[in-house]
Design goal:
mainly alpha, 85% helix, globular
Length: 197
């Protein structure tokens, strides 16, 4: 692939990320946000009537098992984030090539994310009417979306250029940003349990 093609792809990703940020700001700072939020309430009530919602509300044991898998998936996801980011910061796994650590950690991250999203949807269906009113639930969804976009549109594309081609300060900034994002996802997720009590 020529350097012109790679540069065009990099610029395209940057434009997409900037456009998403601008659209989010426009959405957040206009009355459209309130209209959409109010309209979503019917969808959340519908979620409680689905099979997932009925099972989640009716059988606490099933909900608890799914929640356990959700927590295990979050552990996989968080472990993958910390392993790759610690390697980027030079805090661990120095005897293993960085790209090997990043690639293997990313595979684990993707599986953790798939399982966490699947089990999270099931859990949300069981308590949809309740979590709708919790501001921390929306903070978690925002942090989760930001984390996913960061991984797939910023971190992975940037690091695929090869670490030797990137300024060390940028690599450290990416690693710290990644850890902060995913700690925020975990913390807001945990806080839902406290807020919902």
């Amino acid at each position: 692939m020529s350097s012109t093609t790679a540069e065009a792809g990099s610029n395209q990703r940057t434009i997409i990320v900037v456009a998403l940020v601008l659209l989010t700001l426009i959405f957040a700072l206009t009355p459209l946000r309130r209209v959409v939020w109010i309209d979503l309430y019917d969808f959340f009530l519908w979620m409680e009537t689905t099979w997932f919602g009925v099972i989640g509300k009716t059988w606490g044991a099933v909900f608890a098992v799914v929640e356990a898998f959700h927590l295990l998936a979050m552990t996989l996801l968080g472990g993958a984030v910390f392993v790759s980011d610690f390697r980027l910061l030079g805090w661990g796994f120095k005897d293993v090539p960085a790209q090997d650590v990043l690639d293997k950690a990313h595979k684990v991250f993707v599986w953790g994310l798939i399982i966490a999203l699947s089990t999270g949807i099931f859990m949300a269906c069981g308590v949809a009417g309740k979590v709708y009113w919790l501001p921390v639930f929306w903070y978690k969804m925002l942090a989760l979306l930001t984390g996913i976009l960061f991984v797939f549109f910023v971190k992975r594309p940037l690091l695929s250029k090869g670490l030797e081609n990137i300024d060390a300060r940028v690599i450290k900034l990416v690693a710290i940003s990644s850890m902060l994002l995913w700690v925020t996802v975990a913390a807001t997720g945990r806080w839902i349990g406290f807020a919902g009590s």
